[in-house]
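Here is one chain, start to finish.
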Amino acid sequence: MKKDRPIINLETSEINPSLIRTYAYNLDRKDWIIGKFPSRIVESYEFEFIIESNGYMNLEGNRYVLKPGDLCLRKPGDLTRGESPYSCYMISFSMTQNHKSSFEPFYHNEIFNQLPPVLHTKNPKYYEMIFENILDQYIKNEPSSNLLIRSLILEIIYAAYQECKQDYLPSSAYHMIIKKAIDYIENHYGEKISLNQISQIVNLSPSHFQKIFKQTMNRSPNEFLLNLRLTKAKELLLITDESITDIAYRSGFESHAYFTYVFHKILGVSPSTYRKSHQKP
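Its structure:
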């Protein structure tokens, strides 16, 4: 149980995941029957990605309906039990490379503390391809596989955290104003939009709007827009065969060159390298 597990503060810079195991369950739907799995105590960190489902997850006394595209997170010490039918990909992993015991400590971390037990993802195909790639690399077991698997687990953590941040609005006197602005940005990120346009939508001066947006969201409207565009571009790089130029324009970047520059500056690799590293061979 959680109370018996050591609790350790873990800085985000110290997250260095190591895969313990991974598998795909019931993708062919041959075992599509109603039933309950035995209850168990979770020993490590687990992500489960639901492909199809008419089932449930019981976790710490709560019963969650599982839907296609749901990303489930279970932590060490959680009491859990699945209820079929469903199909999924699952990975279990330790948060650091130097942890050798099968019983993972319970970590307090600013990222993981914000991830819910079940996240209904906005782009299921994006996550599905990442889980497929992890399983493929696990089976191949090549010298470079562990390195790629580590980066893919970090990709899941990052993508889930970004979705949580975009869905969450801190308590603020300007809640409705910020929500209206974010809705506009999410609906028009592929277009050429400016601070002036967004501020006009919420009937505020650009300077005042920028001030209250940053106070509420801890980043400027332009930073929020750029992050959203990069997230959408990464999804398109993984799930489509479109050219990088087309993806740049679809994501709202003014040119292929500027897109490549920003992508490399923030993510450390070019869009083409990102696509080759993360897509299935």
